[in-house]
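Q: I'm writing up a methods section and want to include an example of the input and output format. Could you take the sequence below and give the corresponding predicted C-alpha cells, formatted cleanly so I can copy it straight into the document?
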Amino acid sequence: MVYRMAIKMKVLYVSSEALPFKASGGLGDVAGSLPGALRKRLIGARVVMPLYDTISQELKDKMTFLTSISVPVAWRRQYCGIFEAKANGVIYYLLDNQYYFKRDGIYGYYDDAERFAFFARAVLEMIPHINFKPDIIHCNDWQSALTPVYYTTLYANREGYENIKTVFTIHNIQYQGAYGMELLGEVVGLPSDRASLLEYDGDCNYMKGAIECADKITTVSPSYAGEILDPWYSHGLDVILNQRSWKLSGILNGIDTELYDPQTDKDIVKNYGTADFVKGKAANKKALQEHFGLPVRADVPVIGMVSRLVGHKGFDLVKAVLDELLSTVDCQVVLLGSGEWQYESFFKEMAAKHPDKMGIELGFIPSLSKKIYAGADMFLMPSKSEPCGLSQMISLRYGTIPIVRETGGLRDSIHDSGDGKGNGFTFASYNAHDMLYTIKRAVDGYKNTEGWNILVKRAMECDNSWGKSANEYIRLYKSIL
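A: Here is the clean output for your methods example:
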C-alpha cells in the first residue's frame, strides 16, 4: 500500500502591523488571524513585523531577544534587532530599529519610504538567523512590497535562499508607496539595470514592483480582484495589473470568530446566541439607546455605523440624504468614528438637530463598536469602494443586518434578502436615493417581526470564519510550490 504524505509547508507572513501587537485597520486583523488559521491546518506559519515603540510594555516584556544583524539600506547599513514572541499559538518576529520605529504612530512620516525599505530587506536578512526557512513569503501592501523585489533581484540565487516563492496581497490599492525616482539609488538600492521593475508613471512605485516580482498576487475579495483591473478602482495600476492578470486572484478575508462572539463577548450587556437572540439583542439595544441618549423604544429600528469618516466609505451619500431619512422615517441612527472634518461637523449638526433620532461619538472605541454591533438592528456600509470589509461580517455575527452597496467584499459577503435567502439589503448604483430606498426597505422589513427574526437567525448562522479562506490560501501556496 502506498501512503501519500501531506505537503509540508512553511509560510512567513510579512506585515507592517498585526494583532495583538499593533494594528490600525483591517491588515492588522488579518495578520493576527490568518496565520493562526493556517497553523490549525498543519501549515508552519510565522509572522514578522516591525517592533514599534508604542507596543505595550506588557507585550514587550514577553519578547525574547534572539540576535542583532546589519541590514543594507542602499549605500549604508543599519542595525536590526530580532525579537521573538508567541501569541495565540503563533510565533512572531519583531524587528527593532529605534531610528525607524521609535515613533508615536505607525505611518505618516516623511521617511516612510526608507523605514519600510529597511523593513522589507530586513525580513530577508533575518532568515538565516531564525531557524525557519520559509517555502512561501507572503507579503502585504506597499510596506512590504519590496520584499519580493529584493528576493528576485538580490537573494534568489544565494545559498540558503533557494526555491522560496513569494505571494503579495493588495489590501487597499489606493496606497501604493509611490515616490520620486531618486529613491532608487538613495533608499531602495537596486542595481540600475533593475530600475524598470519599480518605475511606473514616472515614479518609484513599491507596489508595482511586487506585482512584477511576486509569484502570485491576491486581493482580499474576488470582486475586488476584478474591480482593480478597471481604471475606476485601480488608482492607476490597471495597466500593469491587466498585463499580470494571470497571477491575480481574490480570496475573501474572514473574521476572528472568538474575538467577535456574542455568546462570550465581555463588552456587551447581555450575551446571546442563535437560540436566544431576541432577548439578548433587546437588552443590548436598550443599553445602546441609553448610551447615546436616545428614547428607549423597542419598536423603532436602530441603524448603526462604525467607520472612518472618509469619502470612499460612502459618507457623501449619507450626507446627501441623512436629514431626509431622520425627518421622514421612524428610525434611530448611531455613529462611531472619526475622520474628515466635513463629515465630523456634519454629523454633529445632525445629532443636534435630531437629538431623539441620532447619536454620535467621535473616535475609535473598540468596546463601543461591539456594543453597536450587538445593539443595533441594522448596519450601514454604503462604500464607494471596499476591498473586503470586516464590519459587515462582524455585524452578521451579532445578528445586525447589513445594508451595503454592492462593491468589493461587500458584494461577495452580503446578498439581498428579497429572494428569501439573503442575509442583508443591498443596492448597486453609487446613488444617495438608491441607498435611501434600500434603508426604507430594511425599515419596512423590520416591522414584520416574525420575518425579521428569521433573517437575523440566518445572518448569525453565516460562516465568515478564517477556515474557508485559509484553505483557499493553502491551495494557492501549493499551486506555486
